[in-house]
């Protein structure tokens, strides 16, 4: 294997692990701020909203663990198709946070009576000051890492000079 390809594959492995860690950290941030998320859902839905908030936190944690596991598997195998699929799923799942929307690690469970934007505003109002910037920053790190890993795996080997 060419040294440049080996370097790109090694970097792709670490970047995929970073994407998984960012997704997992975002899910754990929801668990840490669980009471605030439940209070935001309570504001949006009234009585019974806390249950939806609890479900959203648990769903976010479950999806974050799944995303981290997929990134770990892709980092282990480094097969181009697997890496591209995992990177696409992770990037698509985390990208809405860059626009203030719910993501796979902080889903918005919408029902009659409140929209996703209202839930997001209520959660942001109730959450600690670090929660929204942290989840948005972790989502941005995860998206960038997923895109970088996809590009690193796509790099062709350097052409060899013929004597």
Report on this structure.
The protein has helices at residues 3-32, 34-45, 49-77, 80-94, 116-126, 131-154. Helix content is 74%, strand content 0%.
Query: Beta-strand level of the residues, as a percent range?
Result: under 5%
Query: What's the β-strand tally?
Result: 0
Please outline the major beta sheet: none
Q: Structurally, how many domains make up the residues? A: 1
Rg over CA atoms, rounded to whole Å, is 19 Å
SSE arrangement, N to C = HHHHHH
Number of DSSP helical runs = 6
Low-confidence stretches: none
The 3D shape can be described as elongated
Mean pLDDT: 83
Straight-line N-to-C gap: 19 Å
Q: What is the share of helical residues?
A: over 70%
What topology does this entry show?
Elements: H1 3-32, H2 34-45, H3 49-77, H4 80-94, H5 116-126, H6 131-154
Helix pairs in contact: 1-3, 1-4, 1-6, 2-3, 2-5, 3-4, 4-6
List the defining traits of the structure above:
mainly alpha; 163 residues
How is this structure best summarized?
The chain is mostly helical. It has one domain. It contains six helices and no strands.
């Amino acid at each position: 294997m060419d040294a440049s390809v080996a370097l790109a594959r090694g970097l792709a492995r670490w970047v995929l692990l970073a994407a998984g860690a960012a997704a997992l950290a975002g899910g754990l941030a929801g668990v840490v701020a669980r009471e605030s998320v439940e209070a935001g859902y309570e504001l949006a839905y009234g009585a019974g909203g806390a249950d939806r908030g609890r479900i959203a936190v648990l769903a976010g944690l479950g999806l974050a663990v799944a995303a981290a596991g997929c990134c770990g598997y892709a980092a282990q195998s480094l097969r181009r198709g697997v890496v591209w699929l995992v990177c696409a799923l992770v990037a698509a799942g985390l990208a809405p946070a860059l626009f203030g929307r719910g993501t796979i690690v902080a889903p918005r469970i919408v029902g009659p009576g409140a929209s996703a934007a209202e839930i997001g505003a209520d959660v942001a109002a109730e959450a600690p000051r670090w929660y929204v910037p942290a989840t948005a920053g972790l989502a941005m790190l995860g998206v960038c890492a997923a895109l970088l890993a996809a590009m690193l795996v796509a790099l062709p080997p350097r052409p060899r000079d013929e004597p």
